[in-house]
Design a protein that fits this description.
Blueprint (H helix, E strand, L loop, with lengths): L17 E2 L1 H7 L2 H13 L11 E5 L2 E9 L3 E9 L11 E9 L5 E6 H20 L4 E8 L3 H13 L1 E8 L3 H13 L4 E3 L8 E6 L18 E4 L12 H6 L1 E4 L2 H7 L1 H8 L8 E4 H6 L12 E4 L4 H16 L2
Parallel strand pairs: 1-6, 7-8, 7-10, 8-9, 10-11, 11-14, 12-13, 12-14
Antiparallel strand pairs: 2-3, 3-4, 4-5, 5-6
Helix pairs in contact: 2-3, 2-10, 3-4, 3-10
Protein name: Ornithine cyclodeaminase
GO cellular component, one term: cytoplasm
Pfam families: OCD_Mu_crystall
């Protein structure tokens, strides 16, 4: 077979830049990642048009495929959710993120997918916090969970606000105490607590693998902000119907939330709320289409399911930050 000269290999391809967890953490803070997300939304990105998350059952759990594209770049995350991994000493979330040039679709960088997710998710929450919680010192932060997302969310909150106290609520006492110690190292008065501590909280952050509500939503004070990020499954939730019914609800995308957010879909199936219960989206807040601060006289709830456009925006910011080194 004759190979056309134009189709012949020009030589060995340059090595693809790789970003491991350490490099990702050193290049971009949660606040910087939140800035990248805000810039993407202000530039006109519409999360409602983002491709759906692909899902495939695998022997150890679930395989997720999350593609996205912008004018300059495209990318895809292949992530595994393996519930049995922590018992093996392995991360529950695994995978890789491939960033491509938007015009040629040639790969330009490869990222640790779990580390990218560990940065992206707190950044989304930090962006919501900027627009839904009062600026300046805060009172009590109640943090549900003790895994990587709990640490990431603690860092993200501390970058945006100054809580007087952090209360950790987690199933594993040893891991809860470790997170308390980390919070104290960051200069925050911290302790372990119970679900009842939400009664005096200004900010409640849920980043767990729970499939049932973590606390009684009737205890949450008007004006408090609840952020729930732990689930993207329609039959799993971290917050209860009582909270959702009385809260002003904000999401990344109405379409994604009404497809994947069990925190909203379960109350809707119960007849407690309708699809119109959502007060607004992250894009509405960032672009000023709705006022910051949320509705008065009720709790604010931000429910995140995680979306591919967020991974792309943060990966591009990391790639550009590496180029500036």
């Amino acid at each position: 077979m004759t190979v056309h000269p134009a189709a012949a290999p020009a030589g060995p391809a340059p090595a693809l830049p790789q970003f491991d967890a350490g490099r990702i953490a050193g290049l971009l803070t949660p606040a910087g990642a939140a800035d990248a997300l805000a810039d993407a939304l202000r530039a006109g990105l519409d999360p409602e048009g983002c491709p759906q998350r692909g899902s495939l059952s695998a022997p150890g759990g679930e395989l997720l495929l999350m593609p996205a594209a912008s004018a300059e770049y495209a990318g895809v995350k292949i992530a595994g959710v393996a519930p049995g991994n922590p018992e093996r000493g392995l991360p529950r979330i695994t995978g890789s993120y491939l960033l491509l040039d938007g015009v040629t679709l040639c790969p330009v960088a490869l990222f640790d997918g779990a580390a990218l997710t560990a940065l992206r998710t707190p950044a989304v929450s930090a962006l919501a916090l900027r627009h839904l919680a009062p600026a300046g010192p805060a009172g009590r932060l109640v943090l549900f969970g003790s895994g990587p997302q709990a640490y990431g969310h603690l860092d993200a909150v501390l970058a945006e606000r100054e809580p007087a106290e952090a209360v950790v609520v987690a199933r594993d006492p040893g891991r809860a105490q470790a997170l308390v110690a980390y919070a104290r190292e960051r200069g925050v008065a911290a302790r372990t607590g119970t679900a009842g501590d939400v009664a005096g909280a200004d900010l409640v952050v849920c980043c767990t693998t729970a499939r049932e509500p973590l606390f009684d939503g009737r205890l949450v004070a008007p004006g408090a902000l609840v952020v729930a990020v732990g689930s993207h499954e329609p039959d799993a939730r971290e917050t209860d119907t009582a909270l959702v019914r009385r809260a002003a609800v904000y999401v990344e995308s109405r379409a994604a939330a009404l497809r994947e957010a069990g925190d909203l879909l379960v109350p809707e199936a119960e007849g407690a709320i309708g699809p119109g219960h959502i007060s607004g989206t992250l894009a509405d807040l960032v672009t000023g289409r709705i006022p910051a601060g949320g509705r008065t006289g009720c709790p604010q709830l931000f429910k995140s399911v995680g979306m591919a456009w967020e991974d792309l925006a943060v990966a591009v910011a990391l790639f550009r930050a590496a180029g500036d080194e």
